[in-house]
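Deliverable D2.4 — example input (structure tokens):
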């Protein structure tokens, strides 16, 4: 768990945010009966040698901080009606988290859209990406040059629901994953040669925003209040 939390959240974050990440990560792996890998497909993990290489002279300080968070929350998980929850998390929202149904297609009562407005104050909240029309067509498997480019239709959370290109309608998730965008909360313009995307936030947006958790911790919220905010 130390290797997971140290890889999934910056050790410079507030201790209460790290504690929230510990409980979420523990619940996440428990809900999957420990069938996980060490990548972003499930939970990133690095061993001590990898952490030493990444942190250098700060290794001991950071390691002890993460270990403190792990031990302070020892054996704590999150449940809903007695079942361990799928405690999804991501780096940063677009200002609100997303409903699980809106991104993954399934209603999950504890993974609903909540406010995370502090994410919009982060310096890297928005990112601009330019994709030439040939690459765009290849990645979205379009047969014709774009002749109809609609304005994306959004959910109340701000994430894109659907976007029509020519006669095809794509979900926000499909566009994000096909084009490798940071999130499915995006604005887009097309000049005939290239598409320019401005994405908001980083990640799928479902569950706990790690940046949001850190912002709450800075305001004095403890890890349990952070968890109860993002997992209803």
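Example output (designed residues):
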């Amino acid at each position: 768990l130390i290797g997971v939390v140290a890889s999934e959240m910056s050790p410079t974050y507030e201790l209460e945010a790290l504690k929230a990440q510990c409980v979420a990560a523990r619940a996440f792996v428990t809900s999957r009966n420990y069938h996980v890998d060490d990548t972003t497909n499930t939970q990133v993990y690095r061993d001590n040698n990898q952490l030493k290489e990444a942190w250098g002279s700060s290794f001991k300080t950071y390691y002890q901080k993460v270990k403190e968070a792990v031990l302070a929350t020892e054996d704590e998980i999150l449940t809903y009606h007695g079942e361990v929850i799928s405690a999804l998390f991501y780096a940063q929202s677009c200002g609100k988290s997303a409903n699980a149904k809106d991104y993954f297609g399934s209603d999950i009562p504890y993974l609903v859209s909540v406010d995370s407005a502090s994410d919009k104050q982060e310096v890297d909240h928005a990112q601009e990406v330019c994709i030439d029309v040939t690459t765009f067509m290849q990645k979205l498997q379009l047969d014709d040059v774009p002749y109809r480019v609609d304005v994306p239709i959004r959910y109340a959370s701000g994430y894109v629901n659907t976007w029509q290109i020519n006669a095809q309608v794509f979900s926000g998730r499909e566009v994000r994953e096909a084009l490798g965008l940071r999130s499915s909360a995006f604005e887009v313009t097309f000049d005939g040669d290239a598409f320019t995307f401005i994405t908001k936030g980083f990640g799928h947006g479902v569950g706990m925003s790690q940046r949001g958790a850190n912002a709450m911790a800075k305001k004095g919220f403890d890890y349990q209040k952070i968890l109860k905010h993002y997992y209803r």
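The chain has a mean pLDDT of 96.
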